[in-house]
Amino acid sequence: MIKYNLECSCGEQFESWFQSSSEYDKLHKKNLISCYACGGTKTVKKSIMAPSIGTSSKNTVSHNLDHKKEFLKNVKTKLKELREYVEKNVEYVGDKFVSEVRAIHYDKKKKRNIYGTASLEQTNELKEEGIEVQTIPWVEKENA
Ligand SMILES: [Zn+2]
């Protein structure tokens, strides 16, 4: 059901319910929508007043929240997988990350994948030097 705000050629404004917008169009074409004030059928659709019955805004919100919860759960799972992958496949160098990554970059050491810790400032410095680094969103295992 759709509620339209209608305006008659006489200037009267009124609201009316229709099964759908196409139902309104059908009735409007056949001049079956009459003004309650003058009985005229030259009504103009002004605006939709309310969306369909049955999907109250409350339902929509809770549905979206469920969806979000599911989404966040998936993200967490993915991040956990990422962490596990990094831990298995990438060498941990801890807070030596910045010096190690520079060594690899400048000393042409054998390329290897490393991860460790770096401050945002250090990360930006490396990027300015043209060294590709990526920040890994690290999830705590107990939360995942
Ligand atoms: Zn009228």
Write up this protein.
By secondary structure, the protein is an alpha+beta fold. It has 2 domains: 2-50, no CATH class; 77-144, no CATH class. It has 4 helices and 5 strands; from the N terminus they run E-E-H-E-H-E-H-E-H. It has helices spanning 21-29, 57-89, 97-106, 120-128, and strands at residues 2-8, 13-18, 43-50, 91-94, 114-116. It has a 3-stranded antiparallel beta sheet with strand order 2-1-3. A two-stranded parallel ribbon has the order 4-5. Strand 1 (2-8) and strand 2 (13-18) form a beta hairpin. It is rod-shaped and about 90 Å long. It starts with a strand and ends in a 16-residue tail after the last helix. Residues 52-62 have low confidence and may be disordered. The structure holds zinc ion. Residues 8, 10, 12, 35, 37-38, 40 line the site of zinc ion.
Average pLDDT level: 80
Count every helix, treating DSSP H or I runs of 4 or more residues as helices. 4
**Ligands bound here?**
zinc ion
The portion of residues forming beta strands comes to 15-25%
Q: Uncertain regions: pLDDT < 50 for 5+ in a row?
A: 52-62
Q: Main beta sheet, described?
A: 3 strands, antiparallel
In the sheet with the most strands, the strands line up as 2-1-3
Q: Separation of termini? A: 44 Å
The helix-strand sequence is EEHEHEHEH
Structural class: alpha+beta
Percent helix range: 40-55%
How many structural units, i.e. domains?
2
For the secondary structure, the number of strands is 5
Quaternary organisation of the protein chains: single chain
Shape: rod-shaped
Taking all Cα atoms into account, the compactness measure Rg is: 31 Å
